[in-house]
Write the structure tokens for this entry.
Amino acid sequence: MPTYRTKGIVIKYSDLRETDRIFTVFTANMGKVRAVAKGVRKTLSKLGGHLDLFNVVQIELAIGRNLDTIIGVQNVTHFPNIRSNLDKTSQVYYLTELIDQLVPDEYKDTRIFDLLVSTLKILDSDICPSEVETSLVAQTFKMKLLQLLGFAPQLNQCVKCSQAAQPTGDYFFDNRLGGIKCRSCQSGGKQNISLSPATLKILRALAREDFLYVSQIAIDSKTLAMTEEVLDNCIKFIIEKEPRSLRFIAKVKGLAK
Ligand SMILES: [Zn+2]
């Protein structure tokens, strides 16, 4: 049986038959790989412990007719500090779910893989001791994922009248148009979130700066909650509007060229 090796992050699994499991591994060079690991739920399984969620693994697979089979796992990177912290674990669950839902199956982009690995490393390090830094890193991941998939929100000018955003101005976030709207262009759009100047400033920092910078930002809980709300609504809109639609895949593919 022909085999191959690839490096990836375990992002999902589900049980299959009595002792098997189907894993989704987000790989650096093949996109999402779905494969079965046989007997992995037996206590003495050699593969079992290595295929925990969020581990970075080097896997060996045998090509199958429908599903490939994981036959070996090497060079495992664990993230013990994420695993022992419920807040970090739940954030990482959500981020890997976003990869699963937003990245089309056959889509390959090593930058997205690197983004996820950097996020896991930062969250596992002592740069993120509290929930605030953890959330700031998670929000940065969301923003950068949107950018890499071609859904970068417009934060520098009004999406309707194109007037450059003023640091102290009143703005609203419009999911449908994918960016900020000034007060004079905002009419009747009840679903648009009103942004405080501080939130707009944070959103722009997430779009522009690296994890280290962002994790050190001083932020109050209201601004952080509003930042999370804007990004989560933006993502929800994209997932619901274009669930695995051909248009979405075409757009992402076009970007990769
Ligand atoms: Zn405007």
Q: What stands out?
A: The pocket of zinc ion is lined by residues 158, 160-161, 163, 181-182, 184-185 (CB under 6 Å).
